[in-house]
Amino acid sequence: MNDYALIEKITNLIGSNNLFLDESSLTKNSMDAFGRFRNNPDAYKNGKVLAVVAPSSTQQVADIIKLANDEKIALMPYGGGTGVMGAITPTQDCISVDLKNMNRIRNISYEDKTATVEAGTILADLEFSLNQQDLMLGHDPYSVPIATVGGAISTNGVGYRASRYGSMGDQVLGLEVVLPNGKILKTPAVIKSSTGPSLNQLFIGAEGCFGIITQATLRVFRSPELRVFKSFLFDNFEDGFNAMTEMFSIGLKPALIDVSEEIPDPSSGSKTVMYLTFEGYTEEVKAQLTRTITICNQRNGKDAGESLAEHYWNTRHDSAYSYKKRFLNGTPEGTLSAEPRRLSEYPHVSIPISKVLDYRSQCKEIMDQRNMHIREYSCWTAPELFSMILVNVDVADESEKSNHESISPVVTEILSIAQNLGGSMEYVHGVGTKLVHLMPQELGNGLSLLRGIKYSIDPNNIMNPGRLGL
Ligand SMILES: Cc1cc2nc3c(=O)[nH]c(=O)nc-3n(C[C@H](O)[C@H](O)[C@H](O)COP(=O)(O)OP(=O)(O)OC[C@H]3O[C@@H](n4cnc5c(N)ncnc54)[C@H](O)[C@@H]3O)c2cc1C
User: Fold this and answer.
1) Fewer CB under 10 Å: which end of the chain, C or N?
2) Residue whose C-alpha is closest to residue 120's, from 76, 158, 151
3) Which atom of ligand 1 has the smallest separation from the CA of 85?
């Protein structure tokens, strides 16, 4: 950034130690785990991160936002940079507001089962503090060691224990947010009120469009008395899926459930595994397990013991530790571009239970027509969450060109079908730059309503412009 007057103003607000202008910081804060070489190349033509600022207080966030309004410069909130949809790809020249210094745990109440934390707190740090008091967070994505509370709320992330504890958004009781006009908003941190629409919902899954979350009060949970693991093998996906829907119909609440059909390559056979973890108070855990065994046996499930599910549980954060080592602590751009990988996509749609199996058949047909391969189908945390790993077996090198000429159009087609069947194009990870072109179809005239709200608090359009199609 060459504007010395602006640099001086920012330095006066937050100090020179909290302003970063070096290439490595600018690159790191302009790219999430989606990576430059999976993104729409056009996204990178539009803008770059000019500076990274790391405020230490809500007031400093408000001061930065006021300055951005005066200078008409865009801001982009940055949590852990672990999103997988390109949601921190700059859509125009902007300043990245990195919440890493706002990582204090303000209060944990054992009695109320709440935690009040600053938005830049890493999920694993919060989990550790809660565990000291016989509590736990509940939200448990693979990315616990690297994602922040603010980022998880802003993507409404879904972890592997969501069937029992809900998504990150479900756990939000109250928020402190600095709005794009610089005003500080605090919503009441209550479990329920009947005093109009919940303002929290404006910020959950909003990818920072409506303000910067500085603090959150979250519902947390007692640590379980007992945890048990179990796995079943099924001859086909339908049997595993039907067992899962029956479990949910009668109100079973596993802590972890994943029904996956794994097909390593197009010529191999498939196997369907149900991975299960139950946790809670002892009698409940035992009762859930007993009834699950009955349901799975009735649907031809073969008891595969504990070890498969236990291994799944024990290794669930490994990919995040590896990501942290390879990218977050290194030079992301160089490392990512140097790695040719099999071209793949990992869509997670939300779809009514009655449409899941039909949707699966339609996706298979489309992939077969394109000579592509579906390596895995899964329903995890809920029968309505259907995910797939799609692979283009013909293309081994994940370059900009191959990504956008082969697999992206297929993903768009598959996501549009989910929308047309009454579902949503994404259950877990948000919109980012990856899915923004499908937002008009996703929200219909709801998109203009959101635009109206956005411009009423952000007339200069400084807060994450272009995000969510706003
Ligand atoms: C190895 C790996 C495993 C993963 N596993 C899962 C998983 O199991 N489940 C899952 O849901 N996700 C998973 N993810 C994706 C990712 O971790 C989540 O999307 C996470 O919620 C993003 O949090 P973050 O702090 O990194 O946010 P970022 O990537 O920094 O930001 C995400 C979006 O939120 C906005 N934002 C960030 N902080 C704030 C704030 N304080 N106020 C307003 N806006 C803000 C950003 O501008 C951006 O639009 C995984 C990612 C990796 C790399």
Assistant:
1) N
2) 151
3) 19
